[in-house]
Amino acid sequence: MGVPWLFRCTLFCSVFLIPVSSSPAQVVIRDTLRIGAGPDPNVSSVSNSTMTLVFAHNGIVDMSPSRSRAMVLRNRFCGGGTTVQVVGPVTVASIPARGPGVEANMSCRIIGTSELARSFGFYLDGELVDSLYFVTDCSVACVFQGHIQSVPLYTSFAFGVDDPVHPFELDHGQTTQKFTLSYSSVLCGSTVWHPNCATTVRVIEGAELGTLVGPDGSNVGDVFVGKANDIKQLRFSANGVQPTDESGVAVVEVSSRGITSRVTFEIRRTVPPLHHFRVLVDPDTIHHGSSAQLFVTAMDAQDRQVSIPDDARLDLFVGTGFEQFGDLGALNEGEPKVGDQLFGVRYDQARSGGAVYLANGENHVGSDPVVVPLGAQIQGNPGVAGFGEVVVGCRIDPPHYKQGDPSWANEHYDSAYSINGKDTATVGIKTLGCALSCMAMAMTAFGDTVRPDELNAFKKNETTAVDFRFSGDRVRWRAMARTRALRINEPVDVDSGFDPAELDGLLARCGLVIARVFNSESVKNKPKDTREKAEKQGNHWVLIKGKSHSGYDILDPGRGLRKLSEYSRIYRYVTIQEKKEGV
Amino acid sequence: MKTIIVFAAIIVCEMAVGQEDHKSIDIGARGEVEFILIDPSGRREGIDPRSGLRFREINNSYGVFSLDSEDPEIEAPPPVIEFITYSPLRGEYALTVVGVGRSQYSVAITLAWARASGAVMKVEGVIDSLQAVKYVIRYDSTKTNSSVKKIVVEGSLRQDLDNCYKLTLLGARQLYDDLSHRVDKYEEYVRENESSKARLELEKFSGKLDDVYAKTKGPSRDPNHFLSDTAYRILKEDVQGLMKRE
Quick count: other Cβ atoms within 10 Å of Cβ A379? Predict the structure, then answer.
């Protein structure tokens, strides 16, 4: 603290200097010490002398009702072992709003004879902001060498940056010049402040964009408390995230004793701003009952990825008109949320696949797969949004009936007929029931639950519909529609160039296909011409239940789960699909 | 050929639409045969071994139905050549069975009009490679007006007699020569437009069949002088067909 002026006077040199009101406001300590008139100015003779301090001020007072004694002078040295003791407290009757000042009296007992510097502390609200010194010299006569000191007080301060050109503009990643804090005083201010008062610097807005940094560039954080000179060493660094728009603002406020000053830093993006979201769904094709992850990425207008705060909040939603097919789900603040709309999902969660689409709605068997739009937007702002999509197909799950299942393996297949003149009355479903078992699987999948033996009995005993019965060992496919509105097509004969992809559309609508293929195992021990004929015509029926990424999934009633690629080709096929109204 | 395939696929879609009413024609043939079907609108479906052509003009449904046998001790049943349409047209279908080898054959023709209205009609015959036998399938709105009829032509009796003999459905040589001689005379009268004499020869031929068949069925069956059930039915059908022509 600087001492604006200082002079020295002798005992009884009563010079009252009442400062003219000027800036800054100040409190003046006048050295009007009176010591008792003892002839022997020894130690004892001057004991219990009285020193009078006159506080003069220029009219600046703290009007805050909570501060009854804003200005306080305290004896800092009273106590044993000192050469000058102030006995009792310094008393100040009151601090007038205006006027020349007020005297504060204290009793002083000079113990030593040497010149000693003593001081009083000056406090604001109990906070030491300066020290006031006086000197005693009793080497010849006890002399209080007083001097006048001033403690400047201010009613306002202005916060700034030591940059004459662009003090408050910076790019993301840059750091400002050092802060400045200039003080001023006006009459009748509502409060007073001293540069040594504890003063707080706080980033009150845009804290995600940057922090305060110290002289060495170290991160100080969002809040700093110190004296004015400490604050002047600080800077603001735009070391946070990129602003969402072209630029963002960070507001830094300096405050102390009810005085505040703010500056607004404009922080410019160094990358283009958020324009929309990219929503990727993985996998992009699912079936009823399964789920897919959403990966939401912030993008600029040129479709480049941009950075936004991890805790930015997004709304995720299912496109209007597609709500019946499924829901979105996510852990939101640790709580599972499911619905057509999810509000306030953290960006870092949405970005990392923390939200999923669950195809838990309508199973639209018989219809084409549905392309469900999935959207993401900045919370409450449809202007910044993005859409992805997931293809949701229906699901159909036929059971796997093995013709050799002991439950029906020996059930007599078909009616009695002969093969090459031999009665086949003992031939069971295990031997010839591949097509029959395929039919039972398909019928059960479409809701007409039936086992191969039950279907066998039905076909044998059907008395009305000729197209539901057996025709010799030959099944009649239409029986599959006996209780359900199914579309059964006539068998289609195809050559070796047939591409199974022609069935994709039907399979995607949860149609099923019963196809004749070549089963080499059943003829491996047969004569060559039998094998060749079987390979030429096909000899076995299987059910194609769907298509997955690894190929066409087969339920083989003679074996198990297989892929169509394990067979040489399709020779003939029958399709079964749900019959939609109006179709 | 590619155009035909595309056309056939379109037809399949149309077929499925009207299946709820159970209308259908289902043809299944066993034996060393293929067949060609021509619907009332002139569309063809099937294989003609004589030309080697494959027709796919109705719905591409002509093909083989076959089953394998999962039991190595049991032979798989012989394949069936089948054709199915769920959208039959009212009118006459021409069915031509063509042999790809010498064999007996049977054709099961199922006509359905509604769930409780349908009929299974079976025809049978004997045939040799590249020979043809024609039938007319009449599909109408009711069972009463629907029918399957063999088209018996002048050479039918000769062809069937020869095939029955070669397939040992009748015998022995003496019987065949006797019957063949009668067919020769019949054909001669036909060529000479002697219809009454031709008819008389057919009656004699038919009487011979009845006589031999009765003996075959009787207690004193002669293994060298016999007529199987199949041969009897086929030849009698031919005779009746020819007599209706005369």
Answer: 13
What is the predicted ipTM? 0.87
Minimal C-alpha gap between A459 and chain B (Å): 14
Q: Which of A434, A466, A490 sits opposite B118 (nearest CB)?
A: A466
pLDDT confidence of residue A420? 56
Of A18-27, A102-111, B173-182, give the lowest mean pLDDT range: A18-27
- Cross-chain Cβ contact A522/B28 below 8 Å: no
Contact A387, A434 (CB under 8 A): no
**In this complex, is the C-beta atom of A559 within 8 Å of any C-beta atom belonging to chain B?**
no
Token pair of A229, please? 């000179």
For residue A395 the two structure tokens come to: 């699901």
Mean pLDDT of B164-181: 94
Picking from A471, A538, A541, the nearest residue to B110 by CB comes out as A471
Q: Residue length, chain A?
A: 583
- pLDDT value at residue B215: 92
Mean pLDDT of A434-458: 96
The two tokens of residue B131 are 């020979």
Q: Which of B70, B113, B229 to mutate to test the interface with A (most CBs of A within 10 A)?
A: B70
Read off the pLDDT of each residue in B73-85 and give the average, rounded to a whole number: 89
Greatest CA separation for chain B: 62
Q: Tell me the average pLDDT across A254-283.
A: 92
Chain A residue numbers touching B74 (CB-CB < 8 A): 419, 424, 427, 431
Phi and psi at residue B75, to the nearest 5° = -75, 145
Q: Which residues of A touch B12 (CB under 8 A)?
A: 489-490, 492
Identify the pLDDT of residue B180. 96
Single-letter amino acid, residue B15: M
pLDDT digits (tens, 9 = 90+) for A203-253: 999 999 999 999 999 999 999 999 999 999 999 999 998 887 789 999 999
- Whether the pLDDT of residue A147 is over 90: the answer is no
Helix (H) or strand (E) run with residue A517 in it? strand A512-517
**DSSP helix/strand/coil, B113:** strand
Q: Where are the alpha helices (DSSP H) in A309-351?
A: 347-351
Query: What is the C-alpha to C-alpha distance for residues B48 and B134, in angstroms, rounded to an integer?
Result: 13
Burial of A308 (0-12, 13-18, 19+ CB in 10 A): buried
| pLDDT on residue A73 | 47
pTM score over 0.80: no
In whole angstroms, what is the distance from residue A326 CA to residue A341 CA? 11
Cα distance between residue A86 and residue A233, in whole Å: 39
Interface membership of B67 toward A (CB under 8 Å) = yes
Partners of A540 on chain B (C-beta within 8 Å) are 67-68
pLDDT in tens, A52-107: 444 444 444 444 444 433 344 444 433 333 334 444 444 444 444 333 344 444 44
Distance CA(A456)–CA(A440), nearest Å, equals: 9
SS3 per-residue string spanning A204-216: EECHHHCEEECCC
Tokens of A507: 């399979």
The C-alpha atoms of residue A468 and residue A479 are separated, in whole angstroms, by 4
B55 touches chain A (CB under 8 A): no
DSSP state, residue B161: H
Of B56, B76, B115, the CB nearest to A465: B115
Q: Quick one: closest CA in A to B73, which residue?
A: A431
Do A534 and B66 count as a contact with CB atoms less than 8 A apart? yes
Residue B73 near chain A (CB below 8 Å): no
Output the six-digit token pair for A310: 């991890």
Q: Which residues contact A524 (CB under 8 A, 6 or more apart)?
A: A531
pLDDT band at A123 (very low <50, low <70, confident <90, very high): low
CA distance B135 to B138: 10
Cβ neighbours of residue B9 under 8 Å, at least 6 residues apart? B60
Contact A155, A213 (CB under 8 A): no
